[in-house]
Design brief:
The protein is an all-alpha fold and about 170 residues long. It contains seven helices and no strands.
């Protein structure tokens, strides 16, 4: 199977989001563990307190909770995007030009619809021609030397009787 860039890029973007989210969450976890074990801080102070004057500075006004939320957002958005791509891949899109559908299905589908339409039309025509002395399509199937019966000449569906059988013979 040939690799297609149109299928690789969304998966690569998902992996990128998941990896950077996991790295950010791992860093927040390490920082939290270090603050609890070395400095003896409690969780609310770690996540919501200021780190001004400490050895690990997070930037102006940044707190650990912000990095935790960013990492969680990256991880979850990558995972959800990956699941969405997978669910779309499991449902083949018949209208998509790059779909992996066998060509036979596309050709057989219109034929099946045509057969269903012909069956419905013939059932309807048989119902309409139930009072006829001949079967529907008699005029198209009769030998060429045979004259057209009088009841067929005065029938309102004379043209349909002649054409319908020609269509169904194909």
């Amino acid at each position: 199977m040939k690799l297609q860039p149109s299928r690789l890029l969304p998966n690569l973007a998902c992996i990128f989001l998941i990896v950077f989210g996991a790295i950010t969450l791992a860093w927040v976890g390490w920082l939290t563990w270090l603050d609890i074990t070395v400095w003896g801080k409690d969780i609310p102070l770690i996540f919501f307190g200021s780190r001004a004057g400490e050895s690990i500075s997070l930037g102006v006004g940044m707190k650990v909770i912000y990095y935790f939320l960013m990492g969680l957002t990256l991880l979850l958005s990558g995972a959800l995007a990956f699941l969405r791509i997978r669910s779309k891949a499991s449902k083949p899109n018949r209208n998509h030009p790059l779909s992996m559908q066998p060509q036979n299905d596309k050709r057989e589908e219109p034929m099946a619809k045509t057969l269903v339409k012909k069956e419905k039309a013939s059932a309807l025509d048989e119902k309409i021609f139930s009072g006829c002395l001949h079967k529907f399509g008699y005029l198209a199937s009769r030998p060429k030397n045979t004259p057209i019966p009088n009841e067929c000449i005065i029938c309102q569906r004379l043209g349909d009787c002649m054409v319908a059988t020609v269509i169904t013979k194909e």
